[in-house]
């Protein structure tokens, strides 16, 4: 008999498998094998720029395409350098502040590491 992991929330030993996830009958918590107690994946998501360089918090990037700012007539021009980026989850995975425009979220496919 295989040993199932204890529940990450209540540490109950009475867990069982339901499809691809584990379930705790005592606290009704469900999780997959790669999740920790907070329900997030243990593996960090790797975000790469348009050329394949791995990005990290605090990096500087350069915009490789003219980007229209939604809801405004402003445009982020090619070659605009952005310092001190923050990586976030979601469709737009870079959170930054661009001089003259303000806070923005960018997609990593439109930038390269500076």
Automatic annotation (TrEMBL):
Belongs to the YjdM family. Pfam families: YjdM, Zn_Ribbon_YjdM. This is Alkylphosphonate utilization protein. It comes from the Bacteria. Gene3D superfamilies: 2.20.25.10, SH3 Domains. Residues 47-114 form the Protein YjdM C-terminal domain. Residues 3-32 form the Protein YjdM N-terminal domain. InterPro entries: YjdM, YjdM_C, YjdM_N. The lineage of its organism: Bacteria, Pseudomonadati, Pseudomonadota, Betaproteobacteria, Neisseriales.
């Amino acid at each position: 008999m295989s040993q199932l992991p204890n529940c990450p929330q209540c540490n109950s030993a009475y867990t069982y498998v339901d499809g691809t996830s584990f379930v705790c009958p005592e606290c009704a918590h469900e999780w997959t094998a790669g999740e920790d107690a907070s329900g997030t994946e243990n593996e960090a998501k790797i975000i790469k720029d348009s050329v394949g360089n791995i990005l990290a918090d605090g990096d500087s990037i350069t915009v490789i395409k003219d980007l229209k700012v939604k809801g405004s007539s402003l445009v982020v021009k090619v070659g605009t350098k952005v310092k001190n980026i923050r990586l976030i989850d979601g469709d737009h995975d870079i959170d930054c502040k661009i001089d003259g425009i303000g806070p923005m979220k960018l997609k990593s496919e439109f930038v390269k590491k500076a």
